[in-house]
Amino acid sequence: MTAQPASATRAAPPGTGTMTSATRTKTMKAVRIHRHGGPDALIYEDVPVPALRPGDALVRVHAAAISPAEFTWRIYETPDGRSRLPKIPSHEISGVVAAVAPGAEGVAVGDAVYALTDFLRDGGAAEYVAARAADLASKPRTVDYAAAATVPLSALTAWQALFDHAHLAPGQRVLVHGAAGGVGSFAVQLARWRGAHVVATASARDVEFVRGLGADAALDYAATPFEAVARDADVVLDTVGGTVTGRSWATLRPGGLLVTIVRQPPEWTAGRPARGLFFVVEPSRAQLDELARLIDAGTVRPVVDAVLPLAQAREAYDRGINGHPRGKLVLAVAGDGGDGAVAAAPAGS
Length: 349
Ligand SMILES: NC(=O)c1ccc[n+]([C@@H]2O[C@H](COP(=O)([O-])OP(=O)(O)OC[C@H]3O[C@@H](n4cnc5c(N)ncnc54)[C@H](OP(=O)(O)O)[C@@H]3O)[C@@H](O)[C@H]2O)c1
What we know:
Helix content: 10-25%
Order of helices and strands: EEEEEEEHHEHEHEEHEEHEHE
Number of domains: 2
Oligomer: single chain
Bound molecules: NADP nicotinamide-adenine-dinucleotide phosphate
Shape: globular
CATH class of the largest domain: Alpha Beta
CATH superfamily of the largest domain: Medium-chain alcohol dehydrogenases, catalytic domain
Strand content: 25-35%
Number of strands: 15
């Protein structure tokens, strides 16, 4: 991350103070969720460029990856019940720093960055996003903006599940559910990198693909009950929820850990012979730096299912929900060619 020079441009909220040329535009194209529901609640429209808070950076978004389940997240009300709608979705982005506010440390205008942005603020399905500068990390150098945008939410979730919460160690056995999905595709690669033995579940058409990501064994979830194959696991990473969570207890060794990232009812671990944990991912520049190193070394590869223009966000979310994507779907925002080229090659097998 470039150290911020004393003379770096500092931006007041757009419309006031000193701004770079990039932020003189006071409106931008964005997609917003206008009501509870699904993709048909999304509108592509002109909205104000976001105002910066102290410590923020304004990022010119090049690409934003989508999470199909975002419509179900509990992020649309304030703690006292007021609506946050309309709200811009997508909280994993790549782009270039366009301006910085007072107190923003560690980034400078022009830096190529990627980030997981605050779930409770407007997201990155827009030309600009305001984010805490401390949450921005240098974009991996060897992949384009579309591929970089798939990393922050999904790979940080996999990292924090396996390493911060489960403390996965070399030689341990891990079962990864939903291994061809956004989180699961990173989890398989990270667990393999750590030296664990990886069993993965996926759709029939993705079984070979997840083996290619590094799974030692891969099961078609519709054909093979995973309890018949996965035994004595030290760790289960559940990215699916529903009955998969409850059935997973049987695969754990006594004292093993079931980490789910899908919200569970209270007391979901009561009477179980193993430990259970639900968590919500947090931004981390240090972990994104480590992930960028792994990506630039070729150890971990982001999986891009398809890249669609921002204006086609409804179609992208529809495909995410109904199309069984492999890895992530990405919205292309700035298509400026060269290092800023957004398009990524489709996910291979
Ligand atoms: N707590 C957190 O911090 C956090 C962070 C990120 C995501 N999440 C949540 O985690 C979940 C997964 O996110 P994601 O982005 O990885 O979703 P995703 O890309 O849709 O991946 C889910 C994967 O699960 C597979 N799948 C569906 N049913 C399955 C089953 N019965 N057994 C095994 N695999 C199955 C799907 O395959 P097919 O499509 O081929 O059926 C898909 O590849 C979502 O609910 C999301 O909201 C939580």
